[in-house]
Amino acid sequence: MTASDTITASGLDAAIADLKNLYGDRIQTGRSIREQHAHTTTPIPNQPPDAVVFPQTTEEVAETVRICARNAIPVIPFGTGTSLEGQVNAPNGGISLDFSRMNRVLSINSEDLDCVVEPGITREDLNHALRDQGLFFPVDPGANASIGGMAATRASGTNAVRYGTMKDNILGLTAVLADGRIVKTGTRARKTSAGYDITRLLIGAEGTLGIITGITLRLHGIPEKISAATCSFPDVHSACRSVTTAIQMGLPIARIELLNALQVQACNAYSKLDLPPTPLLLLEFHGTEASVAEQAETFGEVASEFGGSAFAWTSSTEERNRLWKARHDAYFSVLPLRPGARPIATDVCVPVSRLADCVTEAEREADKLGFPAPIVGHVGDGNFHFSLLVMPDDPAEYARARDFIGWLNDLAISMEGTCTGEHGIGQGKQPYLRRELGDTVDMMIAIKKALDPQNILNPGKIFSL
Amino acid sequence: MTASDTITASGLDAAIADLKNLYGDRIQTGRSIREQHAHTTTPIPNQPPDAVVFPQTTEEVAETVRICARNAIPVIPFGTGTSLEGQVNAPNGGISLDFSRMNRVLSINSEDLDCVVEPGITREDLNHALRDQGLFFPVDPGANASIGGMAATRASGTNAVRYGTMKDNILGLTAVLADGRIVKTGTRARKTSAGYDITRLLIGAEGTLGIITGITLRLHGIPEKISAATCSFPDVHSACRSVTTAIQMGLPIARIELLNALQVQACNAYSKLDLPPTPLLLLEFHGTEASVAEQAETFGEVASEFGGSAFAWTSSTEERNRLWKARHDAYFSVLPLRPGARPIATDVCVPVSRLADCVTEAEREADKLGFPAPIVGHVGDGNFHFSLLVMPDDPAEYARARDFIGWLNDLAISMEGTCTGEHGIGQGKQPYLRRELGDTVDMMIAIKKALDPQNILNPGKIFSL
């Protein structure tokens, strides 16, 4: 018996009655709020939950899961709703847990460079809380996502090349299991070999194995010096080759972002910049005054070998923030390229040695699509995204976009890469998971069935049982 | 039905007959070789397997597991036998898989800073193979262990403070499951969010969920410059405090090892050194010529604030190797402190802010033991080891050592640390796992039962089902 098969009106009514007792006015069932708590960021259909609750404590989450478990009702955790593959949808209905009221920093241990937070805090609010202590949390997926959602989807983003992804920056989790038990998966020790790595099993599990209610994060000292640089290239191949070379030299660059020519033009227009309208790398260097200068100089030499021009670096905070604001606004900047269109993001990641070929081949294929498809990429990791600007009312365009995504995912897999560098599987990427990992998926399913036999924890995500 | 309960003479005979067909003269059943393939490094009893096989391919491992699965016979992977908590023991008998003939480097992708190896290669042989390409694999647990064993026990060691542990330096695994299926858990992409992190689930699972037969490792460029430093302190508290301060400042020191006064004296005697007989930090800096000098200078200033003296740094390769050879020989150096004794290693790891207190309190308690107990520690991670020099024929000493280990593990757990920083759980640490992680252990057991329902993969390790 699984929630996907057997959710019943009587079970749902019983669960909602119990939840009303628990939550009072912190449970909502209006259509509009339910739709806001389902998928909204891409053309994946919006599948609303039956109710939205706003827990304030781990114990409330546990009681919610116990109520839902008794009635075989799905439970779907919700952070900020910025996921891109349908992770917050409720294909079988159920209860959305909105973590916006569990957004506290519980402790900052500056001596240990760690902190304990609730899952609803956003990364910007967290970094605001850390700034006074000279600390920051480096993972930056672009969107101002919640830390819980970032953990659940194993997010990464612009800083991952230097600081790693969520999996590298979490010491332990508090989580509620499918039977309502509360577990702590780690300690504040910086390393451990105490049994199975349940912390990293829950990171990226998209809420399907347990609901994250507390997170112990690794922090970093704000670097003494941060500088930014831009460098233009005649083509993406040259840009990628310069990145690959810098990575191979072990240059500890903090951020290396690629924008293709179309994306640069979009950013120029949207953010009132004046960058040359050719492929661009946007870099950030962290370190001491001396090491930042050394890194920038070395990268400048590498770039010029590959035809890079207009290399410009700055340690002005204002100028740097302006550039990175433009990068963070890339999502919005592409919208005017085709008014009315909705972007669909691809997310392949390949070994860096294959990056230049992968981007070049994909850009050529994208040229045939008949709609704009700008590129941004965390190219230090070999990860890049197209924004496919598809008209919402054109099924033929959707079909072409879907075919292109399939083609691109297969290309990445054939290059020993992955179909999803950082967006997760959710609903959207399920067809590709087995192509990439084969029978490893059966291990995942066996674990899911063992830990959530009723299939109530975010059912229909990663795989459909 | 589990292998632990039901291993039968007829099942064993049938399995060994089939294995003889498969392996020819690569199966051994002599008593001596069987004992060599069980636990030998500490006073945990030696529990030999019934036979030892020497597979040469992943497919042979898979066929071995299928034969053993048919007959409900345990399968115990064996690398170099250097684990410290009984990981290679065969408490219910079974077949030991000795990976010494699966020790090839299958590919080195210098452009991507990764390589693919078989599990039997030792870390020294691997680094020898990498050196020509200017690359190295940083994880260094001291012993010349096999990469497969290091993956299975989530090993770390001296370089972890800068380069991370095995979990941070593996991109993907090939593994044989309990039913003999072969899976690949990852790609060569540097990051992924493709479903559950099965790679990291198998790292540290001590062979209980799958048998690792191939490993894709992250590599690093050999730094342009490496320098070493030593610094003496009046007491371990001051030494630890200087480490904590350096970590908090974000100094990217590659190695930070603590030796307490007794350990320094042992190293002086064994390795013919002339270090002041007081607590010592041994450090290594990696980087460019300029950054190495900057790091050393900054650390020297920090150390002097905490009473550090005789700070000496060298970029002479010969001098550096001599110091690190002494550190690696620490295990042997303590033996002359009490001829005839056998060392038992502890392995707690605490948040760095608690390190000075933890080491100081533990050293005081150890003074009451009545036998020598020198300390070495990877203190940049908050991890340190006593060598408890116990006489093999003195049950009262063993009892005191056991009580001390229990006391120390509880102390570390009370300081939000772990009972096992890098040695794993195996047989020896099982009583402490639940104290540290509570019901999280039930999640582990549920996963174990789901993936290995017959309990044939290294049974009796991590937990006894």
List keywords for this structure.
homodimer, about 475 residues, Uridine Diphospho-n-acetylenolpyruvylglucosamine Reductase, domain 2, Uridine Diphospho-n-acetylenolpyruvylglucosamine Reductase, domain 3, Alpha-Beta Plaits, seven-stranded antiparallel beta sheet, 17 helices, about 20% strand, globular
Short description:
Two copies of one chain form a homodimer. Helices cover 37% and strands 19% of the residues of chain A.
Describe, in plain words, how this protein is organized in 3D:
Two copies of one chain form a homodimer. Helices cover 37% and strands 19% of the residues of chain A. With 465 residues, chain A is of the alpha+beta class. Chain A folds into four domains: 103 residues, 2-Layer Sandwich (Uridine Diphospho-n-acetylenolpyruvylglucosamine Reductase, domain 2), CATH 3.30.43.10; 120 residues, Uridine Diphospho-n-acetylenolpyruvylglucosamine Reductase, domain 3, CATH 3.30.465.10; 109 residues, Alpha-Beta Plaits; 88 residues, Alpha-Beta Plaits. In chain A, the strands form four sheets. Chain A has a seven-stranded antiparallel beta sheet, with helices on both faces. In chain A, helix 2 packs antiparallel against helix 4 and helix 10 packs across helix 12. Chain A is built from 17 helices and 18 strands. At the A-B interface, strand 9, helix 8, strand 11, helix 9 and helix 11 of A face strand 9, helix 8, strand 11, helix 9 and helix 11 of B.
